[in-house]
Write a structure and sequence with these properties.
- The protein is of the alpha/beta class and about 220 residues long.
- The chain has a single domain, classed as Vaccinia Virus protein VP39 (Rossmann fold, 3-Layer(aba) Sandwich).
- Helix content is about 30%, strand content about 25%.
- The strands form two sheets. It has a seven-stranded mixed beta sheet with strand order 5-4-3-6-7-8-9.
- Helix 1 packs antiparallel against helix 2 and helix 2 crosses helix 4.
- It is globular, with a radius of gyration of 16 Å.
- The structure holds S-adenosylmethionine (SAM).
- S-adenosylmethionine binds next to strand 2, helix 4 and strand 4.
- Catalyzes the methyl esterification of L-isoaspartyl residues in peptides and proteins that result from spontaneous decomposition of normal L-aspartyl and L-asparaginyl residues. It plays a role in the repair and/or degradation of damaged proteins.
- Its EC number is 2.1.1.77.
- Keywords: Cytoplasm, Methyltransferase, S-adenosyl-L-methionine, Transferase.
- This is Protein-L-isoaspartate O-methyltransferase.
Length: about 220
Amino acid sequence: MAYKFVDNYREKGARKQLVETLRKRGIADEAVLSAVGKVPRHFFFDETFWTQAYKDIAFPIGDGQTISQPYTVAYQTELLHIRRGDKVLEIGTGSGYQTCILLELGAEVFTIERQTNLYNRTIKVLPYMGYQAHFFLGDGSKGLPQYAPYHKIIVTAGAPFVPEIMLKQLAIGGILVIPVGDAKTQKMVTVIRTGEQDFEKIELDTFRFVPLVGDQAW
Ligand code: SAM
């Protein structure tokens, strides 16, 4: 496959500015900011739209889906408190941009996408960029039980509720970050597994995600 990936001073400069924008918006975790500064987000865009790649906006990636807004990616990642070597399940691979951010932080990433076209693209583009993850095609609303437990689980699509089955796949001390709400807006929810049967749930800011579609979802 012929990809044309160029990362020159224009893109590097724009990326630095994006990091400063996120810092001003309240992202304080330097490791997360540094990861945003490293991942070439324009590689996920057609070259015609490279000027859009470092704006703090979501953008269509085909099949009715979007690459998440950088602020949203940084916000969710910050909540995960990734430590090097963490086993992370990402539900909704989409473009693969969030996957790269997690990999830059030293996580081992298991990522699942339900749309074949997006899955087929990411399994080629990420390795081409030098990023290695475990890719899966299927319904992630049920998690990915065969590789559980995970230190962290991130859901990058809006869910109607927190799927019980996902909670069971968290390690003790593990964190789930999931947007929960209706079709229009969702609250960012974190659930920490504090014991075998104990979970602590916190509701945070409001976002707008594409829907999580599946057995334990819409
Ligand atoms: N983090 C991604 C990125 O940076 O590009 C954004 C992903 S997009 C906002 C949400 C993704 O979740 C879409 O690609 C969608 O197809 C996927 N999705 C929705 N329901 C899903 C499910 N049940 N299992 C797996 N993926 C799902």
